Amino acid sequence: MWIWQAFTGLLLLVLLALHMIFNHFVVEGGLRTYRDVVAYLSHPLVFAWEIALLIVVTAHALMGVRAILLDLGIRPATDRWLKRGLTLLALGIIGYGMWLSWLIRSRGL
Amino acid sequence: MTTEPRWKRARGWMDLRGRREGGLAFLLMRLTGIGLVIYLFLHLYVLRLLAQGPEAWDAFIATAKSPLFLMLDGILILGLLYHAFNGVRVTLLGLGIGVPLQARLFWGVMVLTLLLTGVAVYAIFALTG
């Protein structure tokens, strides 16, 4: 559990640093317009990078939520439901993110 | 496991008395973590505007360049950098590296966080200004 939090966290250092730099710090005006976002996501490497970030950041965030709730002393039975709930939520978030990215990307192809 | 009510245990990690750097680092990690989870949800929710087309997105971009938004970006980066640097510290400590230095590492995390936040805030206002 702890080691997964650390592992995804270290991945995020790289995934998120480049996400921030490419989406904001090397962009004229600091924020991409609609047209720029579409062009940006059409690049296959960028697309793969953003999807990787989506998956890793979702896992890291929801494992963090569970760690906090475990510290609050939830019962093992509650934790079993919590794990199911968070897994479903993660799949929902990742599915939504992939759908949205694919939609935007398809508009530039 | 204690028999204290849950809200008292929850309050436990907010209580800094006698805990010094390690406790403060842990509390800040929790608070920034909660803030970042909330931000992640907001971020993904706002991105839905992209699906609605250029007008919706570009109108949001114009709002996002207001000074208030940019200041909130600064707060986000402050929390993000702390969480990232302290995450490296916690990982090292967890692997048994630098344990006697943990308090000094915490202050190193604070200095790095504030320095880089300063640079980022300057860059944000320079880019959008």
From TrEMBL, chain A:
The keyword Transferase does not apply. One of its GO terms (cellular component) is membrane. One of its GO terms (molecular function) is metal ion binding. Gene3D superfamilies: Fumarate reductase/succinate dehydrogenase, transmembrane subunit (1.20.1300.10). SUPFAM superfamilies: Fumarate reductase respiratory complex transmembrane subunits (SSF81343). The chain crosses the membrane at residues 47-69, 81-104. It is found in: Membrane. Keywords: Heme, Iron, Membrane, Metal-binding, Transmembrane, Transmembrane helix. The keyword Membrane applies. This is Succinate dehydrogenase/Fumarate reductase transmembrane subunit.
